[in-house]
């Protein structure tokens, strides 16, 4: 899967970017961090941990951006019901959108 996330390097391109990954502790966010970390300065954020960010609280995002002044932001945050497909209800689907 990380091959899908890795873009081909451009000849002569060596810039290291400071990238904030929101939702870095989730399944998708962790994969994004692994793909970016070899070439960039990655700041991992989540609702818990040293760099807190909650996508439902704009103040936490503004604070994070002010503190770190990133080159880019990747958002892999979100929530969903995790159950076998047959056990998911209509409410589970709606809350995961």
Per-chain topology:
Elements (H helix, E strand, L loop, with lengths): L1 H4 L12 E5 L4 H10 L4 E5 L12 H11 L3 E4 L14 H6 L2
Features:
alpha/beta; 97 residues; 3 strands; three-stranded parallel β-sheet; 32% helix
Q: What is the H/E string?
A: HEHEHEH
Overall body shape:
globular
Mean pLDDT: 85
Total helical elements: 4
Distance between the terminal alpha carbons, to the nearest Å?
24 Å
CA radius of gyration is: 16 Å
Beta strand count: 3
Strand order, main sheet: write it out. Answer: 2-1-3
Strand content: 5-15%
Structural class: alpha/beta
What low-confidence regions span 5 or more consecutive residues with pLDDT below 50?
none
Largest sheet: number of strands, sense, barrel closure:
3 strands, parallel
Task: Report what the structure shows.
- It is a single chain.
- The longest helix is centred in the middle third of the chain and has 11 residues, at about 60-70.
- It contains four helices and three strands; from the N terminus they run H-E-H-E-H-E-H.
- By secondary structure, the chain is of the alpha/beta class.
- The mean pLDDT is about 85.
- It is about 30% helix and about 15% strand.
- The protein has helices at about 1-5, 25-35, 60-70, 90-95, and strands at about 20, 40-45, 70-75.
- It starts with a helix and ends with a helix.
- The protein has a three-stranded parallel sheet, covered by helices on one side.
